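User: For this week's homework, look closely at the record that follows, marking any run of repeated tokens, and judge whether sequence predicts the tokens.
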Amino acid sequence: MSKKIKICPECGTENEENAIFCKNCGKNIKEIEPKEKTEIKGGDKMPERQKVIKPISGDVTKGVISRKTKTSFEEINIFLKIGGIVAWVIGFGGFFLLQGIPELSMISIKLLCGFLELIAFGVGIACTVAGSTKKDNGAIMIGTITIVLAMLTILMFVVL
């Protein structure tokens, strides 16, 4: 004995003959004509199923868990904190150490050390911005100190 069913054109789900909405996707199937459902006996071939393939729409990344990046904020923050101070120390200390080499002129020493101080200044700004973004008071303090020291050292190069 065969039974009549409605096949949803949206998702391909088999519904009862008197169904108004699809039990799977909720689409209105009131106007769909019921068809005979044939019972499958052992050895019979599976009947072709009417399945509508719908393109994906909307946000397909919803629920996707991304992997942690290799470089974390903490690693960058530590680099900025240490890098700015190291550049300042090399530029400041290098100014006095390089004066002992007679082959170097004072202008070339100031340019070299001034360049290092500009790097320290830039790293100090980056450290301060990164610290304020993540509410890291230590990074803000170290960045600000590096900026002030770099500016004072550049001013010293100009005056001396």
About this structure: The chain has a mean pLDDT of 75. Strands lie at 3-7, 14-16, 35-37.
